[in-house]
Amino acid sequence: MPTYFYTARDSAGRLVKGSLSASSREELNEKLSAMGYFLTHVSLKEKRWRTSSISSAIKANDLIVFTIHLHTLLEAGVPLLSGLKGLARQAQGRRLGEIIEGICQRLEAGESFSQALAAYPKVFSKLYIGIVRAGESSGKLDLVLNWLAKFLQWQKDLRSQIRDVFFYPCILIGLMLLLVSLLVTFVLPRFVALFSAMRITLPLFTRILLSLSQFAHSHWLYFLLVFFIAGIAGFLYMRSEKGRYRVDYLKIRLPVIGFLIHKIALSRFAHTLSILLNSGVDILTSLEINKEVVNNAYLAKVIEEVKQKVKTGESLSQALKENKNFPPLVVTMIAVGENSGFLEKNLERVCQFYDEEVPRAIKRIFTFIEPLLILCIGLIVGAIALSIFLPLYQLITMVS
Q1: Is residue 52 part of a domain?
Q2: Are the C-beta atoms of residues 19 and 5 closer than 8 Å to each other?
C-alpha cells in the first residue's frame, strides 16, 4: 500500500502536514476527513531505492519481453493495473520487478501510465513514453504496445547485425597488432644480434624497422601517456555539443562505412516516424522525438530544420526535399503518401525499403573490409619477414 505526504487544514484552519498509508487518493481523503482534516495538497512517497538502484537502464531484451507480455494481457482484456501486478510477480530480474512495482504505485496514486513511465527516464525513452501517451489518448494502448514491441525488436536486431559485421575485423586487427608486436619486440632483435655478430651489414629497410622498434621499446611509457591524454581529450570533446556535432558529421562522410552509418540513421528516422504517426502522435512531436532516436547530432540538427519548416506550413516531403541528406526515393514515397492521404502506409514502405537496404549495405561492407584487412596483414607481416630474410640471404651467400 503506497504512502502519501499530505498537507491539510484542521477545523480551526491550522496547517497540518504528515504522511499516511492508503490504497488511493480517495481513501486518503476519506481517512483525513474522518480525522477532521481538509486535504489541500498530496504527493506520493516513494522508497529511495526504487529510483536510486534503477538509475541505469535494463537489458533491451527485458524491455521487449515486458512490452510483449503487457500487450498480450491488455489484448486479452486484463486491466492495466492487474496486468502490471502480475508481471511484477513474474519479473526475473530484481530491477525490472522494482520498476513495475513503482509503476503500479503511481497508477494507484492516480497517475496515468505514461506519467508513471516518465519517472524512469533511464529505462523508458521519450519515444516509448510518447507512444504510450498517444495510445492512452486514442484508447488503443494494446495496439501501440504491439507496434512498440516490434520496433524495439527491430532496434535490437539492427544492433546485433552491426556488432556481428564489425566483430571479425576487430579480431583480425587485434591479432595483427599482437603478431607485429611479437615479431618486432622478440624475433627481429634476436636476428639482428646474430647478424651483428656475423658482421653483416643490415639493409636500409631492416635498419629503419629496427630503429622504430628500439624507439618504441625505449619510449613506450610516453606513448602510453600520449594515448591516455588523447583519449581523455577526445572524450571531453565528444561530450561538448560542438564536438559531438562535428564528429557525427564526419561519421557519415567517412569512406566505405560513412554511407552505412547514414543509411542506419535514416532507417531509424523512418521507423520512428512511422510508429509515432501510426500511434496518433502529431507530426511536430514525432519529429522532436526523432531527433534523439536518430542518434546523430548532425542529423538531429537537420531534423530540427525540417521540423521548423513543417511548423511554418511546408509539407513534410517539401521540407525533406530541400535537404540533401534524404534520398529522392524516400522523399517521393512520402510525397505520394501525403497526396493520397496514406502517409503512414507509405512510411511503412520506406521502412521495408531500409529493412532490405541496410543488411545489403552491411554485407557489402563486410565483403570489402575482410579481404582488405587480410591484404594489410599480409603486407605488414611480409615487410617484417623481408627485413629478416634480406640479411639472412646475405649470410647464406657469404657462407656459400
Answers
A1: no
A2: yes
pTM for the full predicted model: 0.68
Q: In this predicted model, what pLDDT tens digit does every residue of 150-182 receive, in sequence order? A: 888 988 888 888 887 778 888 888 888 888 878
CA pair distance 355, 358, nearest whole angstrom: 6
The amino acid occupying position 90 is Q
* Cell triple for 219: 619510449
Strand order in the sheet with 15-21: 15-21, 3-9, 38-45
pLDDT per residue as tens digits for the range 104-152: 888 888 888 999 999 898 889 888 888 898 888 888 888 889 988 988 8
CATH number at residue 160: 1.20.81.30
- Which residues constitute the domain of residue 39? 3-45
* Contact between 9 and 37 (Cβ < 8 Å): yes
C-alpha to C-alpha distance for 326 and 263, rounded to whole angstroms: 10
Q: Where are the beta strands (DSSP E) in 48-162?
A: none
56 pLDDT above the threshold of 60: no
Distance between CA atoms of 300 and 302, rounded to whole angstroms?
Answer: 5
Residue 182 φ/ψ, nearest 5 degrees? -65, -45
Instruction: Count other C-beta atoms under 10 Å from residue 398's C-beta.
Output: 10
